[in-house]
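Example 318.
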Amino acid sequence: MSEHPVLSLVVPCYNEAAGLASFWARASDALAALGVAAEAVFVDDGSRDTTLAVLAALAARDPRVRVVALSRNFGKEIALAAGLDHARGDAVVPIDADLQHPPELVRDLVAKWREGNDVVIALRRDRATDSAPRRLASDLFHRLFARVSVVPVPRGAGDFRLMSRAVVDALRAMPERTRYMKGMYAWVGFRTATVDYDVEERAAGDSRFGLLKLWRLALDGIISFSALPLRLSSFLGALFALVALAYGAWLVVRTMVHGIDVPGYASLMAVVLFLGGVQLLSLGVIGEYLGRVYDEVKARPLYVVSARLGFPPGGTDT
Ligand code: UDP
Ligand code: MG
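Predicted structure in complex with magnesium ion:
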């Protein structure tokens, strides 16, 4: 690797062995067509299939290929962080290994970068390849996120984008462990342009994101970019305290006017149970934040690398 790469692709891979050869066939052509020095940093995110062996074979054949193997599955967001740490290009493009992000679009991203933009987002036109419930859920989440988040995230924006070195360094300086990338991209800012593309079918295998993983991601997103749930629970608390005060006053007046009557079990139970529910919910909300704070203060490294392939001997030169 004598030549300093202008462009780095960062490719997170989790159990992608079946599709990697066709991915690199298309991506390497797309890179070659750019006519600039380029590299691809593949991150093996603890795959349980032969992904690492396939990547090692690619790296042995092609000096543009570098591989970072993580010691276990850390999740796509962390795999991306590892890739960004190892990418040396003046511009970096994270791209999925399943060919849902057309590598040919990188040319358009680079063109807009050359025009002076620091970030060029590839916006998907629609998610026709996703199932209807998943589309609905994602739509709902993005509406909610847009309302509560401190930073706006453009619709249809994902990880597929070009970032200049300045942007990559800004992201790398964010040490948080709960990495909601879409929010982090928006948070760092910089001059941004967009390019449209149609998302393609997955080339091989199924999505690595089950419903549960998406739910965690959505929760992470909202909690790391909004304190609204916390504020909501204190608002609810204040609201119920006021209502209880008014109700108590009314009871006092009623007792003075009508004397004491014993019935009231139903209303009492209703109020007690309802308030108990609200308290548990608020505790849960606080717990979600506290858990993440705990994760952060432990300050563990984001990821553990088990192997690096295609890097010059004597450590990394990132
Ligand atoms: N991925 C990863 N680690 C994970 C899950 C996914 O590195 O724990 C990678 C995966 O190999 C792919 C990309 O992230 O390159 C996007 O994953 P996928 O296609 O499953 O997500 P979707 O397209 O359904 O959003
Ligand atoms: Mg995909």
